[in-house]
Specification:
Layout (H helix, E strand, L loop, with lengths): L8 H16 L5 H18 L5 H13 L7 H28 L14 H45 L7 H14 L5 H21 L4 H25 L5 H18 L5 H20 L1 H30 L7 H20 L5 H50 L5 H17 L5 H26 L6 H16 L7 H13 L10 H16 L14 H29 L13 H26 L2
Helix pairs in contact: 1-7, 2-9, 3-4, 3-5, 4-5, 4-13, 5-6, 5-7, 8-9, 8-10, 11-12, 11-13, 13-14, 13-15, 15-17, 16-17, 16-18, 19-20
Pfam family, one: DUF349
Protein name: Chromosome segregation protein
Keywords: Coiled coil
Length: 601
């Protein structure tokens, strides 16, 4: 091929030597780049080491719903492993609790409530990842064909180009297209890349480049190197070290692929300048490591404080009661959540810290379970005491010796409250028997008392005592039973003097406060001795609440119709279906209460 201003053989050899040196120079930083990539991946996995199970599942769901789900295989797989370990740990905790309760380990059976959700997420991601891999293979195949076509064009450019071809424009187009071409399979890349640079070298060595073209090419590449160096200098002051390291890696890629060759006088000079800046930025890795170490040590201190507090709750100084253990259970759950949300700790201490936490939790549960086991013996004694009170109440429920009987039944009710818990299977049965005997007496007493207004002052005195008793009610176990007892006793007492009628309003206000404290609706309160007007008012309130609930259910079900797939299997709609089920169950309860009032039950 004939070109203008042909170069001499010596000049061609000189260009060949320069290009060969330029191609090999950037490889000096390849080990540094690989090391940086490994550190980056390691740092990311270490930060996520203590992520909670719920947060891991949420992030897995976020990955699945993203447009590039298939690209996040490593992240998703790490989260999956974390979720599996967390579920396994919780199942082991349940197993320890089961065996601590005196049960045989081989009879243990427990299915974690989040296992099915995890399995569904893994299944969906597997399908998306397979689709992503298939599309990647197809895309890489197209990119391979395109890059091979560019190599053929490059080869043809120096072996068989037409006279008058604008070599500068042609080689620039090929190089730009090569830099923008997508990824190919790793197994193909090395041979393909070597082939490309071989022909690029051949182009510079074998083609009779005219001096003007060579100078243009050198000038263009030098300008690229200067831009890269300028950007690298800016990265020296980048406050986020990880960001600076990531972008430096990209600048090395540009240097290697797009900024060569340059004139010999600038070759070593520019490379040394760029390498010096790179070394300064890499030296800042110590800042990143120091920051991570400081944060991890702070996390370790916080987690150790949490472990210490749980240990303290497991070893109470005084004899703990039911209220102590109930409040401690709530506090331990808060501490457990706080522990899981706290970030990572130094890797060499991570396993010991985690094992200490699990062991401390297990010890707390064992101590708590032992306490409740010890209660079972005393509960039988409490049952015997309450059965005696029931028998006394039945023996005297028809008595009309008011001076003695009223005081007796008040004493029976007080003694009932003082006796501790009984076996759960007997709680409702004995309470119904005792309440029925008390109601029989007080109903008879009310009928006799209402026959004369002379007892109104005595009624006010009784109501005053009941009101003061209601004010002492807290939210401890058995409080609802006490409130029902107090409400029934109040209903069984007749009228009070007209100037004292305000006590009724005060009682109702206090009652609402105590019901709110114990998280119970007034319509759900069991009570006896209601007058006809009181029953009518209660029925009206229940009807209004039924209407409101039915409207809420219709609204929620209408909202479901806007989704393309409004099934229970849809993870996004699961909470909505659970809410609807809860409201329907509450609705049925209210309807049954209304039926009982109307039927006079």
């Amino acid at each position: 091929m004939t070109t203008e201003n042909n170069l001499s053989e010596n000049e061609e050899n000189k260009i060949s030597t320069e290009v060969t040196q330029e191609e090999t120079t950037p490889d000096k930083t390849s080990d540094e780049q690989n090391t940086h990539e490994d550190e980056s991946e390691h740092t990311e996995e270490h930060v996520d080491a203590e992520i909670s199970l719920s947060d891991a599942l949420k992030e897995m769901e976020t990955i699945i719903n993203s447009n590039n789900a298939g690209e996040n295989f490593k992240r998703f797989n790490a989260l999956k492993e974390k979720a599996n370990h967390a579920i396994h740990d919780e199942i082991e905790d349940k197993k320890h609790e089961y065996t601590d309760a005196g049960n045989a380990a081989e009879n243990f059976s427990y299915e974690h409530p989040l296992q099915s959700r995890l399995s569904a997420l893994v299944h969906i991601f597997r399908e998306k990842h397979e689709a992503f891999q298939k599309s990647q293979e197809e895309e890489q195949k197209k990119n391979l064909e395109h890059r091979q076509e560019l190599i053929d064009r490059l080869k043809n450019l120096y072996t068989n180009s037409e006279p008058g071809t604008n070599l500068f424009k042609s080689i620039r187009e090929i190089k730009e297209e090569w830099s923008k071409a997508g990824q190919v399979a790793k197994s193909e890349f090395k041979i393909l890349n070597n082939n490309y640079f071989h022909h690029l070298n051949q182009f510079y060595q074998m083609l009779d480049l005219n001096k003007e073209f060579l100078e243009q090419e050198y000038s263009h590449n030098l300008e690229k190197r200067q831009h890269i160096i300028a950007r690298a200098k800016e990265l020296e002051n980048e406050p986020v070290v990880q960001k600076a390291l990531n972008e430096l890696q990209y600048l090395h890629k540009l240097w290697k692929e797009e900024a060569e060759p340059v004139a010999e006088e600038f070759r070593e000079k520019t490379w040394d300048e760029f390498k010096e800046i790179s070394n300064k930025i890499h030296e800042r890795k110590s800042e990143l490591s120091a920051a991570i170490e400081t944060e991890q040590n702070a996390n370790l201190e916080k987690k150790n404080e949490i472990i210490a507090e749980i240990k303290k709750l497991s070893e109470p100084k005084d004899n703990p009661n039911h209220n102590y253990w109930q409040s401690s259970i709530k506090r331990v759950e808060e501490l457990r959540s706080e522990f899981l949300k706290t970030g990572s700790v130094p890797r060499k201490l991570s396993n010991n810290n985690w094992n200490d936490f699990k062991s401390t939790l297990r010890n707390f549960n064992t101590t708590k379970n032992n306490y409740y086991k010890s209660l079972k013996g005393s509960q039988q004694d409490n049952l015997d005491e309450k059965l005696k009170l029931i028998q006394t109440a039945k023996d005297n429920m028809l008595s009309e010796d008011w001076d003695i009987a009223v005081a007796l039944f008040k004493k029976l009710q007080e003694d009932w409250k003082k006796i501790g818990h009984v076996p759960k299977s007997m709680t409702n049965k004995i309470w119904d028997e005792f309440r029925e005997a008390c109601n029989t007496f007080f109903n008879n007493y009310r009928e006799k008392s209402n026959a004369s207004t002379d007892n109104w002052k005595e009624n006010y005195k009784l109501k005053k005592e009941i009101l003061e008793e209601l004010k002492t009610i807290s939210d401890e176990e058995g409080s609802i039973e006490k409130i029902e007892n107090i409400k029934t006793s109040w209903n069984n007492i007749g009228k009070v003097p007209r100037d004292k009628i305000g006590i009724n309003s005060e009682f109702n206000k206090t009652l609402r406060e105590k019901l709110k404290l114990n998280k119970i609706n007034e319509l759900e309160l069991k009570e006896e001795g209601l007058s006809e007007n009181q029953l009518t008012d209660k029925a009206r309130k229940i009807k209004n609440q039924i209407a409101d609930l039915e409207a809420e259910i219709v609204k929620l079900e209408n909202n479901l119709s806007f989704f393309k797939n409004p099934s229970r299997e849809n993870l996004m709609l699961r909470d909505t279906y659970n809410t609807i089920d809860d409201k329907k169950a509450h609705l049925e309860t209210l309807k049954q209460n209304l039926h009982n009032i109307i039927a006079g039950e």
